[in-house]
Design brief:
Blueprint lengths: L8 H18 L2 H13 L7 H18 L12 H13 L3 H45 L8 H55 L8 H19 L3
């Protein structure tokens, strides 16, 4: 099969350039920056729950053996867990650990959703500009009379621009959006696994609160989890 007829610079410019420009105009600078970060994250090593547990194991053992009152925060290079363990040690409670996790989770989910929306918009625009290319090709037909060569060229450009739009949407933009979504879901599951592990490991080392304080803490955690599940 010859691919030369499928290569056309003007068609590519209309579809790629038009889709990119329309996406930029529809999205704000913040959404574009979040999308760029999310796309870059696809090529970085994924978050590993096992590695995070290994990095936190020393600190966990110290707290379990010596108590949280004698513990000092140790950074592991992960902002969420550094902030969460620091807050937990300062307050001598697991509540700030869970609260910081929820804060970071909301931020990560919001960024991932913004990137997915931006790419989904771009995927919708690809076929639209394929149709724009078709209209451009028809506008190039001579008005004076029917030229077979011009007709063949217009049909060829119409087919190529339509093809470019469909391929751009379905083989690039939509798969990228789903890849970001899947990676975000996998990371949240892994991070929740670490939080659950920390809670189980450190609960016995926490100072016991009075019953009414403990009830209030459970209520606050339940309210935070409910807010987390509510749609934006």
């Amino acid at each position: 099969m010859a691919f030369d007829p499928l290569i056309d610079g003007l068609s590519a410019t209309i579809v790629l350039g038009g889709t990119a420009l329309a996406t930029v105009l529809r999205s704000g600078p913040r959404e574009l920056a979040q999308t760029a970060r999310a796309l870059g994250g696809l090529f970085h090593p994924r978050f590993s729950a096992e590695q995070a547990k290994a990095d936190l194991a020393g600190q966990v053992n110290t707290i379990r053996n010596d108590g949280v009152l004698r513990a000092n925060p140790r950074a592991i290079g992960d902002r969420e867990f550094d902030e969460a363990t620091d807050a937990m040690i300062r307050t001598r409670s697991l509540d700030p650990l869970v609260e910081r996790h929820h804060v970071h989770r909301r931020n990560r989910v919001a960024q991932a959703n913004a990137a997915v929306r931006t790419l989904a918009q771009a995927a919708e625009l690809g076929p639209v500009f394929g149709m724009v290319g078709t209209l451009v090709s028809l506008s190039r037909l001579p008005a004076a009379g029917l030229d077979p060569a011009a007709l063949n060229g217009a049909i060829s450009m119409a087919v190529v621009t339509t093809l470019y739009g469909l391929l751009l949407a379905n083989l690039l933009l939509a798969p990228l959006a789903r890849a970001i979504e899947r990676q975000a879901q996998a990371e949240e599951q892994a991070r929740q696994d670490v939080i659950d592990w920390l809670t189980v490991q450190l609960q016995p080392a926490m100072p016991h609160l009075p019953a009414h304080h403990e009830h209030g803490a459970r209520t606050a955690r339940a309210a935070g989890a409910l807010r987390e599940r509510q749609p934006a």
